[in-house]
Amino acid sequence: MLSKEEISLFINVVKKVSTYDFSDYSERSFARRIDKILSDNKMEMSALITKVKSNPEFLERVVKDITVNTTELFRDPATWQALRFRVLNKFENQSVINIWHAGCSTGQEVYSMLILLNEMGLFEKANVFATDLNSDVLSIAKKGEYKYRFNIDYLDNFDKVINENPFNYEDQVSVAYSKYFQIDQTRDLLKMNDFLVNKPLFRKQDLINDGNIFYTKFDLILCRNVLIYFNHELQTRIFEMFHQNLFAKGYLVLGAHESMLGPVASKYVRKGLFYVKK
Amino acid sequence: MSYKAVIIGGSAGSFQVITKILANIPAGFDIPIFLCLHRLKHVRTGFEEALSIKSTLPIIEPYDKQHIRPGKIYLAPANYHMYMELGNTFALSTEPPVNHSRPSIDLSFFSAAYTYKNKLVGIILSGANKDGALGLKQVKLAGGTAIVQDPNECQVKTMPTAAMAATDVDYIFTTDQIISFLKKI
Ligand SMILES: C[S@@+](CC[C@H](N)C(=O)[O-])C[C@H]1O[C@@H](n2cnc3c(N)ncnc32)[C@H](O)[C@@H]1O
Hints:
Helix content of chain A: 40-55%
CATH topology of the largest domain in chain A: Rossmann fold
Shape of chain B: globular
CATH architecture of the largest domain in chain A: 3-Layer(aba) Sandwich
Distance between the termini of chain B: 6 Å
CATH superfamily of chain B: Methylesterase CheB, C-terminal domain
CATH architecture of chain B: 3-Layer(aba) Sandwich
Number of domains of chain B: 1
CATH class of the largest domain in chain A: Alpha Beta
Shape of chain A: globular
Largest sheet of chain B: 7 strands, parallel
Order of helices and strands of chain B: EHEHEEEEHEHEHEH
Oligomer: heterodimer
Number of strands of chain A: 10
Structural class of chain A: alpha/beta
Strand order of the largest sheet of chain A: 6-2-1-7-8-10-9
CATH class of chain B: Alpha Beta
Distance between the termini of chain A: 44 Å
Strand order of the largest sheet of chain B: 3-4-2-1-7-8-9
Largest sheet of chain A: 7 strands, mixed
Bound molecules: S-adenosylmethionine
Radius of gyration of chain B: 14 Å
Largest interface: A-B, 22 and 22 residues
């Protein structure tokens, strides 16, 4: 197991040669990621540090491996059902709805949102912004093209969110997947339809250094399974930053097993899975 | 009491065993129990409730960074890996499944072994894969106590057998023996 000193040496080197700052990532989980990178690359810490200093592309790859990039279509269906029946419906009478996906990774969540908005008749009104630290995942997100087999389980989630109403079991529809994406089983591809792909604005952004890079505030910010990799102090800073960039009564959505702790929580009202700006 | 935590890993065929163990934990049991169980794909929710029905202690699916409290039973939430960290807190992660499993029993056991060292009891129950074998080995290497459910009693014995192949376990116990062991610690 790596020592604290080795880890902070690594963090300082990365800080010096790039804009990335991992000082306030969760210490143990960061150490586990580095351990994994070292063993996957069969490398010692000293070699990793040397290579990170001299090779910017390698550094980008390491950053991608440090961060966890997993995501799914309609991950945690209950959250999406609640978004549908308890949150997005509140914005129906607005002329514009601004949504920010912070830490969107390869974009499945962004497309989940667009599909949901379209089913609710809110697609045209919505401005959808999506950001991530990592440009590789963003280029996948912009294409909206995924491995089908990898996403096959999530078709169930699609049905739960789009075709069923948990508050009224008789209210069932059967929207075909092809309305939103095409499945090519032989090439193992799931490709989002163009009208979805062309809608969102994907941008590279570092939550730690950059803050809000769009010239607007938001009705809804989704930042799911991103802040679990940060320590408490950094989480608090980000919660403050989100607070400043939400409209009054705007919603913040975290991952299914995340919560807001400490004094910053008093700036929000917790409503079930959601945090509403006071 | 010398132990500070118990961690239990189980998969196919372990649900009844867990339920029976939880129904027999003495009131006043004052260390935490961590459960890392594989769930069927369609049983992602409702699992906590199902386990809670007969349990003598409250069952909690922890949040990231939640504090670990004595006398509580913590169940790894569906679709997350669960780590027990120094400083008595949980860390959850969405890292990819390990050996097709998320939660991964190995990852939970690794972190518990690192945090609790020789004050940990690790138990591997019935299951149809090898998850937990390396984890239990790590428990043992860190000085903790390694237990497997007796393969003869298991509905599916692959998991305890793999754990026994990976490490010299301290005890091979039936469900009832596991219960009496836990009652005594
Ligand atoms: C596990 S993914 C979450 C994806 C999606 N929100 C979900 O829950 O399915 C975490 C993402 O956070 C991004 N991330 C990590 N640190 C970041 C930072 N400082 N600024 C912006 N994004 C960051 C990673 O690149 C990664 O794509």
